[in-house]
Amino acid sequence: MKFFIDTANLDQIKEARDLGVLDGVTTNPSLMAKEGITGKDNILKHYKQICDLIDGDVSAEVIATDFEGMIKEGEELAELHEQIVVKVPMIKEGIKAIKYFSDNGIRTNCTLVFSAGQALLAAKAGATYVSPFIGRLDDISTDGLNLIAEIRLIYDNYGFETEILAASVRHTMHVIECAKLGADVMTGPLSSIEGLLKHPLTDIGLEKFLADYKKGNS
Ligand code: E4P
C-alpha cells in the first residue's frame, strides 16, 4: 500500500518524507488556500517545490470545469514536472478530459468520487488513480469504507489498472481498514500516518528495557 500525505504544507511533507515511508502527495485548492498559496505563478511554484522535496507522485488539481480549460491547465501542470499527476473532478467534462489525458500519456487522479458507478466510469476513461472520499461519506452517516470494498471488487472483476487512492482519510483506523480492503494507496494527514506508530505496550516495554539495561550497566 502506498502512503500519500494530503497537504500543501512543506514542513509536514518533509516530516513525512523523513520517516522514510512517503510515496506521494495530494493537494487540492482548499489545501493550497490553507497555506496562503494564491495566484497562478505562486501555485505552480509551490507544486514544483513539492516535487523537489519528494520522490513520488504529486497530485495537482485543475480549476477549470470545461473540457478545453481542463486540457489547457492539465497540460501546463503536467509539463511542470514529471511527478505531477493531474487531478480532475468527477464531472462529465472531467471524464472527457481524463480520457484525453490518458490517450496522450498524461497521468490523472479522478477526484471527488463518492459512488461505485463514478469509480467505474473513471477507470473506463483511463484514470491513473481514482479518489473515493471516505471521510466525507462518513461525515454524512454513510459507510465510506464500504465504497472502497465495492470499487476493489469491481476493478478486480475486470482487471482495471486504475489505482484506488483512498482519500479524505481522517485517522489511523481508516488507514488500517483501507489496507485490509486492498486500497492501493491512501492519502491522509500526517497524524494518520504517525498514529500507526503508537501503542502503549511499546512505550511501557521500551521504558522497562531501558531501565533494566541501566540497572545492569551503572
Ligand atoms: C483528496 O485528494 C483530497 O485532497 C482530500 O483527501 C480531501 O479530504 P477532506 O475530506 O479531509 O478534506
UniProtKB/TrEMBL annotation:
Q: Which Pfam families match?
A: TAL_FSA
UniProt GO molecular function: aldehyde-lyase activity; transaldolase activity
- Which pathway does this chain act in? Carbohydrate degradation; pentose phosphate pathway; D-glyceraldehyde 3-phosphate and beta-D-fructose 6-phosphate from D-ribose 5-phosphate and D-xylulose 5-phosphate (non-oxidative stage): step 2/3
PROSITE patterns tied to this protein:
TRANSALDOLASE_1
Query: Which residues are annotated as active site?
Result: K87 (schiff-base intermediate with substrate)
Q: Which residues cross the membrane?
A: none
- Gene3D superfamilies attached here? Aldolase class I
Q: Give the E.C. number(s).
A: 2.2.1.2
Q: Which reaction does it catalyse?
A: D-sedoheptulose 7-phosphate + D-glyceraldehyde 3-phosphate = D-erythrose 4-phosphate + beta-D-fructose 6-phosphate
Alphabetized PANTHER family for the sequence: FRUCTOSE-6-PHOSPHATE ALDOLASE 1-RELATED, TRANSALDOLASE
Q: What task does this protein carry out?
A: Transaldolase is important for the balance of metabolites in the pentose-phosphate pathway.
Official protein name in the record: Probable transaldolase
